[in-house]
């Protein structure tokens, strides 16, 4: 039976709890939140425990369980709740209202756990049983095939929704600090949002291009070096949009509903259903964390996932080879067109070849995307992670791709960098 809070969610409005998660007193604030959501947990004789996950480098993720006497581990997990608290300052780069819309949209397609409530700096949702993958798991054939099938399902069945943002006459946050002259002295700049939404003319906003534009505008510009870097990245984004935003691809207007952050920590291997003993039954995975999900070319989402085979350490020698990428894409194509109901009328090999080439073409863009993101995180995050070095590595991937594709690396008679060498490796 649904609780009162879940009934409210099912009625179409996710419950809001007017509390915040406090990182410096995490146990107390987490208990306040769960007892507000589940008041019966405080008095039903169970022991509430918190399990901290540390796979992410942006948010805090806690599993809250109520260990009541007589319940099995599976029964306890069926009632467990995940608490996700946003990292400090991340609202600068993530649209939290849009994230909630994404979660609700995915719930409608049985692709996300039930969202139970939001609070000031996070959300509470049902726990998904399963094991979180590590980068090494992504390279296992049964897992990457499962990822390919699930990602294809996302791209095939989930619609791309336009922003529910108020008309541009409504003022939105922006300021001269972002390097854009504000038309009013109030630090509210509707022209800023218009510039973001229109970065890729004719494309549904938001999308992966508008996200990168928003991030470039959010870069710090307190020094001449920072201003120069922002200007160079802005110039490069215009170049990318001109080259890539109107390429033909899968989905309506060549956009699909993309996860855009398919690293190992966001891939959950689902346990086999009780009673299933088939040793060769294919693995099944689910995806979590939808804060970066947005309409995007399918090739971007796939190439972005391939980059995560090397983990946060960016071990380029572990990225998929040509043969691995082709096999992944073949699994993806079969699943994609099966979910569309078009699999009998499709030239599979032609589609595989087309998408393989497109993913290859997009391989440098994830480095640009996450490089900008990391430059912002280096200034706002309190998490113990070297974002500044990560930014240089990821942007370095982008510039290496540019040098490879425009011929400047070969013309300068420089050695091909490790990532590009790996990408060109056949098997």
From TrEMBL:
Functional pathway: Phospholipid metabolism; phosphatidylethanolamine biosynthesis; phosphatidylethanolamine from ethanolamine: step 1/3
Biological-process GO terms, alphabetical: phosphatidylethanolamine biosynthetic process
GO MF annotations in UniProt: ethanolamine kinase activity
Keywords of this entry: Kinase, Transferase
Enzyme Commission number(s) from the entry: 2.7.1.82
Signal peptide: none
SUPFAM superfamilies, per database record: Protein kinase-like (PK-like) (SSF56112)
Any one GO cellular component localisation term in the record: cytoplasm
CDD domains: ETNK_euk
Disordered: annotated span: 406-427
Pfam families named in the record: Choline_kinase (PF01633)
Family assignment from sequence similarity: Belongs to the choline/ethanolamine kinase family.
Protein name: ethanolamine kinase
Lineage: Eukaryota, Fungi, Dikarya, Ascomycota, Pezizomycotina
């Amino acid at each position: 039976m649904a609780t009162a809070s879940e009934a409210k969610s099912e009625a179409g409005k996710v419950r809001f709890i007017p509390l915040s998660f406090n990182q410096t007193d995490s146990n107390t604030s987490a208990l306040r939140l769960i007892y507000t959501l589940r008041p019966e947990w405080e008095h039903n004789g169970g022991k509430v425990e918190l399990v901290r996950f540390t796979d992410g480098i942006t948010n805090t993720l806690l599993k809250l369980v109520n260990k009541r006497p007589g319940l099995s581990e599976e029964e306890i997990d069926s009632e467990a709740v995940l608490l996700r608290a946003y990292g400090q300052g991340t609202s600068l780069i993530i649209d939290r209202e849009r994230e909630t819309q994404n979660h609700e949209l995915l719930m409608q397609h049985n692709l996300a756990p039930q969202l139970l409530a939001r609070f000031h700096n996070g959300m509470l949702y049902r726990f998904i049983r399963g094991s979180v993958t590590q980068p090494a798991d992504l390279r296992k054939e049964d897992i990457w095939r499962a990822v390919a099938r699930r990602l294809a399902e996302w791209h095939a069945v989930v619609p791309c929704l336009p922003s529910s943002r108020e008309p541009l006459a409504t003022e939105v946050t922006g300021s001269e600090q972002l390097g854009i002259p504000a038309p009013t002295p109030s630090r509210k700049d509707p022209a800023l949002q218009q510039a973001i939404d229109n970065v890729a003319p004719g494309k549904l906003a938001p999308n992966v291009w508008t996200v990168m534009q928003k991030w470039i505008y959010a870069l710090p510009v307190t020094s001449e070096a920072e201003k120069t870097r922002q200007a160079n990245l802005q110039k490069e984004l215009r170049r990318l949009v001109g080259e890539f935003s109107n390429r033909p691809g899968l989905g309506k207007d060549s956009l699909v509903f993309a996860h855009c952050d398919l690293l190992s920590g966001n891939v959950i291997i689902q346990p086999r259903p009780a009673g299933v003993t088939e040793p060769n039954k294919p693995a099944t995975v689910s995806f979590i964390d939808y804060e970066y999900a947005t309409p995007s070319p399918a090739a971007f989402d796939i190439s972005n996932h391939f980059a995560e085979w090397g983990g946060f350490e960016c071990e380029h020698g572990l990225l998929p080879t040509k043969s691995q990428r082709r096999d992944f894409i073949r699994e993806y194509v079969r699943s994609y067109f099966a979910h569309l109901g078009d699999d009998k009328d499709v030239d599979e090999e032609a589609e595989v070849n087309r998408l393989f080439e497109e993913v290859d073409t997009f391989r440098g863009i994830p480095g640009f995307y996450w490089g900008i993101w990391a430059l912002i995180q280096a200034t706002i995050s309190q998490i113990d992670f070297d974002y500044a070095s990560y930014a240089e590595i990821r942007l370095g991937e982008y510039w290496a791709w540019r040098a490879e594709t425009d011929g400047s690396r070969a013309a300068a008679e420089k050695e091909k960098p490790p990532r590009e060498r790996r990408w060109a490796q056949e098997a």
